[in-house]
Amino acid sequence: MNWENHVRKVVPYVAGEQPKNQNVIKLNTNENPYAPAPGVAQVIQNFDCEILRKYPDPDVSVLVDVLAKYHGLDSSQVFVGVGSDDVLAMSFLTFFNSGKPILFPDITYSFYDVWANLYRIPYERQALDDNFYIKKEDYTKKNGGIVLANPNAPTGIMTELSVLEEIIAANQDVVVIVDEAYVDFDGKSCVPFIEKYDNLLVVQTFSKSRALAGMRIGYAMGNPKLIQYLNDVKFSFNSYTMNALTIAVGVASVVDEVYFRQNIAKVVATRERTKIELAKLDFTFGDSKTNFIFATHKIVPAQEIFEALRANQIYVRHWNKPRIANYLRISIGTDEEMDKLITFLEQFLSKEKI
Asked: Are 187 and 180 in contact (CB under 8 A)?
């Protein structure tokens, strides 16, 4: 058993539960409740399988070009990967090698510390304030890099761009990554800062707003030198990270701007309506700018609500972690799904108060 002494051991990320039973209300993994753009289905239906006998374009040029045009950038400023998790993991490996601790919030996407541990990157968690906002002064000390999700997950809170710019400007000797997985749901993007700060990398995904979690498309935007370094590492790892069908689907999603905006508007409208209904039931929560609400009840423990919901085939997310153990993260589903959630909560909570 001596070989085990040389194994790279890590505690893996735990994804949200994917129930085998499809007859559930699934509000636990922030998936989009609506179908991808109609053009996506057309691409899949008409896809020439003969193409699959050949390797895909390692540069993913057609998708990179479409994304660059969409964001008003040059193609040399865009990097594409297999979901934003792949892009972020590649970024950790590429940019965080100084030996100094990287900084990210104590309550944020729980993959950050997993990647740091995997790549043996020292890190320090910076405590959010009591309202779950970052404290910019925590990010001015010496560090090996900074990672901030904006809007943050699982809190849903958005940091103002002026605050983020102060942090980026104060750390120009390291790479600052802004993870914008949820930015399309009312957030404000840091992409305009790319031309001003060559240490900024902005990461986005197709999994949430573009309803393509099952296709795994993510991308990063930054100055050409950052992107070149990312590509160098990618091509040292796997030249063909994105398959031909996924590339075609990604392009079809980006070009259908009308559907994209309509889809987002529906999710945001449902989110705001759900906030009103949850408040009536004595839940409190921050002003989410995402496709989920991070809520706590004034009386009934989150674990108890979570278990009751799950027993009735309604799945939300709960973490038994410091500071957030009494919160539930509730993804925004269709209006019908959210109505069923609210109806159940009304009945359950009324019994709890008796």
From this structure: yes
